[in-house]
Structures are given as structure tokens and as C-alpha cells.
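Data availability (excerpt). The following record was deposited with the supplementary files.
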Amino acid sequence: MHKQLLHHIYFWLSLMLLIAPPLAGNAFAQQDAEAERTAAQKKQVEVRLAYEREELARLDERNRMLQDTLAKTRNDLRHTSGHLDVSAVSLQNSAVKLDEQVESIRLELQGNEARSRALSDVIEQQSKRALARAEKDPVAIELQKLVDLRSVAADRVQAAYKAGAAPTAEVDAAAAALAEAKVRLAERRQTLGAQVGADALAVWNRELLDLTVTNAQQSAKLMFLESKRDKLLQCLPMLDELSRTEDEFKRVHAQLLDKRARVELLELEDRELTNSGK
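Predicted structure:
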């Protein structure tokens, strides 16, 4: 009985020794195959990661260049336009507003100039009418004769005074008489002028003067607004460039963010493969 038990133990030990080496060999072979697959996958990931990093660096450089271009273009627009907000919408709205202001001032100037011409014509006609009436007025005619006579007398006395033949008192008297005649003539003409609308002439002359001042102010304002509008027109090509650059920047920036996400995923995959190969 004892011998039979030993025989069975010996049999099973022999069988286990025959089976164990092939099983161990298969396990080592599987481990080697898995390590080779992991190494191949890691190599592929490293190649892809290197390429994606190069693309990321290229996009990052392009992104910085576009940022610099946008900053320069905006600064140029601010300098040229005189506006802090240099967005296309803001500058276009400003240009439209300036056009409206320029057109309004031009219309006002045209109206003022037309009224100035009309006032000048009316004033000239009234002045001629008043002068014509004064020339036909008997009293004014006689007063003009008196002025002419006293002017001749004053010249004669002045000549005699220079020759030493007349005293100073006669010169002064002759000058006073001439001044009195001129005053009387001016008063008569003023009276005649009042009869043909002198008050209206004074009002028209005052209005014409006001219009002249207003037109000068509006002309200066018009020049200033036109200058600002011209500067904005100079900005139009830069606005087109700014719009194109902004569109390209948005596209490149989106690609840059996508590329960064891809690189991060590949880096994560590479770390996982590295850890699994240890």
C-alpha cells in the first residue's frame, strides 16, 4: 500500500515536469509579443507627436505674426483717423455722420450766399434810388452848391494865409462855414434816405454783415469736417486689410487650439505607452 502511494506521487510529479516548461515558454512569448506591439505603437505615436509639434510651432509663429500685424494696422488707423475705436463699424458710422454734416453745412452756405446776393442787390438798388432822389431834390442841390462855394472860399483863404495875406481867424472861419454846409447837406440826404427806406437799408446792411461772419465760420467748419472725412477715406484700404487679417487670425487661432489639443492627447498616449512598457 505504501509502495503504491509513492508510485502515484512519482507519476504525477513526472507529468507536471513534462507539462510546465511549455506553459512557461508560452507566457514569456506572449509577454515579448506584447512588448513588441507596445514599442511599435510608441514609435508611431512619437513620429506623429514630432510632426504635430512642428505644426503647432508653425501655427504658433503664424498666430504671433498676425497679432503683430493687427496691432500695427490698428495703430496706423488710430493715427490716420484720429479715432480710438477703429473697428470697421465705428469708422463707417463716423464717415456717414461726417458726410451728413458736410452736406448740411453746404446747403446752409448755399442758402446764406443766395440771401447775401439778394440783400446786396436790394441794398444797391435802394442806395441808387436814394442817391437819385437826392440828386433831384432842390434843397439838396442848393446845399451842394453851398458846399462847393464854401469849399472854394476855404481854399482861397488857405492860400492867402500861406502867402501871409490872411490871418488865422479867417482860415478857421472859412473851415467852420464849410463844415456847417456839409452837415446841412448830410442831414438833408439822411432825411431823403429815410423817405426811401433808410431804416430798411440799415437792417439789411446789418443782416448782410451777420451773414458774412456766419459764412466765414461755416466755411471754416466745412473745411475741418471735410479734412476729417478725407482722413477716414484714406483708412478704407487699411480697413480692408484689417478685415482680411482678422479673418485669417480667427482661422489660424482656431487651428492652433485644435493642434494643441491633438498634441496633448498624443503626449498623454505616449506617457501611457511608456508606463505600460516598464
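Summary of structural features: The chain has six helices and no strands.
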